[in-house]
Specification:
alpha/beta, 7-stranded mixed sheet, 408 residues
């Protein structure tokens, strides 16, 4: 397996050559990534050459629709699902609310949904609100010390009344990567469908959702080097079972059923730039050149290898500090490079101190109020979060470690 060519990677991101950002090390990638050049190019082209209503018979409109279709087809192929099993919506939170509405109509009072207290509120709150309709909400709780979800705890919660199990691929504060395939198999064996929030995982390599096995998988493209959209995989079985949420005449088109609002045409088209980027990385590093799913897997492993090697020194630097509680595991191979720390003072103040050293990081609750409370962290004080991706350089890690040494 070749190692990631960081110089080649960074050339693909205009932010790294932007004069106003020089000397600033970006460590709030979990909140949104820099955008790669292929996405910017496609977005610019659409707004300058294709900004008409798509799918009409005149040429520019035909091209606009073709670019939107290309984005769906190529991203679905990377994710290992059928083209019409991928929907685009305005955000993951909005997509989840639409899904919850569909489940509200489909489920009967007394039936149950399992949620966790490890999730970002986007994959928790919309489901919990179904309690108002008589749906039973069961909470799969994290270990208050480690933040981990234990599959055996889920097994004890399942029975014939559970229709859906919702959990994150990894939490945006705990960072530990959950065993999606194992958890999905447990839920399926009990007759339940599975909804996975992949927002905090997908930036570190697109998963093959077809291989992983969940029925629904959600992530946000503005965190995967793209425009501000939400991607939603809905496998055919559950997609055709749930009530249509779109205009009645669009109900027979799977990718339209759960996107009632008109999508942002330019941003959907620009999402093909994410597939361009995967192709670029695969080709440059000697990976597959034709099979999109194989390219995605190859690039996923490249990204993870780079991130793990940079992450372990960061974890080692903070895990034993008296004034710091590292949230989640200190083993880089088991987590995403999203590192939350509970401190003895308000985290936002410390983030501001880091900014004085050219480190852009965040402090707060990050919409993860439930997991922080479960682990005994005051959400008002919050956590300091430093998060990075494959495009982060060793020099930026060194800058971070030096800054942490000064402010912690």
């Amino acid at each position: 397996m070749s190692s990631l060519d960081i110089d080649f990677v960074r050339v693909q991101f205009p932010a790294f050559s932007e004069p106003s950002l020089q000397g600033q090390a970006f460590f709030e990638n979990a909140g949104g990534s820099y955008t790669c050049q292929p996405v910017i190019d496609r977005l610019t082209r659409f707004y300058t050459q294709r900004k008409v209503q798509p799918y009409a018979p005149y040429e520019v409109s035909r091209l606009a629709g073709a670019e939107m279709d290309e984005a769906r087809a190529r991203m679905a192929a990377i994710l290992g699902v059928d083209t019409d099993e991928l929907s685009f919506g305005p955000s993951t939170t909005q997509n989840t609310y639409v899904l919850a509405q569909a489940f509200r109509q489909w489920m009967k009072p007394g039936e149950a949904i399992v949620v966790t207290n490890q999730d970002h509120e986007a994959n928790s709150g919309p489901w919990r609100r179904l309690a108002d309709e008589g749906i039973e909400i069961r909470e799969w709780q994290i270990d208050p010390e480690t933040g981990s979800l234990k599959p055996e705890d889920l097994e004890n919660m399942l029975d014939e009344r559970v229709r859906l199990v919702c959990f994150p691929h990894c939490s945006n504060v705990v960072g530990e990567i959950n065993p999606v395939t194992e958890i999905t198999a447990i839920a399926h064996a009990a007759g339940a469908f599975v909804c996975v929030d992949g927002v905090s995982y997908a930036p570190h390599g697109f998963p093959n959702v077809g291989d992983l096995g969940p029925d629904i998988y959600l992530f946000s493209t503005y965190k995967t080097y793209g425009p501000h959209q939400g991607c939603m995989v809905i496998r055919r079985t559950i997609g055709e079972l749930l009530p249509n949420q779109a205009h009645y005449f669009n109900g027979d088109v799977l990718y339209k059923r759960f996107t009632p609002a008109g999508p942002d045409h330019a941003q959907i088209a620009a999402c093909a730039g994410m597939a361009d980027y995967v192709e670029l990385l695969s080709a440059h590093h000697g990976g597959p050149i034709s099979d999109a799913a194989a390219q995605g897997a190859f690039v996923h492993d490249l990204m993870r290898g780079q991130e793990v090697s940079l992450l372990q020194p960061v974890l080692d630097a903070v895990k034993d500090r008296n004034a710091v509680r590292l949230i989640g595991t200190s083993d880089a191979t088991r987590r995403a490079p999203t590192v939350a720390m509970s401190l003895n003072r308000p985290a936002e103040t410390v983030a501001a101190e880091l900014a004085q050293h050219g480190v852009m990081a965040g402090g707060g609750d990050f919409y993860a109020v439930r997991p922080l409370q479960a682990m005994g962290v005051d959400p008002a004080q919050g956590v300091l979060r430093v998060s990075f991706t494959h495009y982060t350089s060793q020099q930026e890690i060194d800058q971070l470690l030096e800054a942490l040494e000064r402010v912690l």
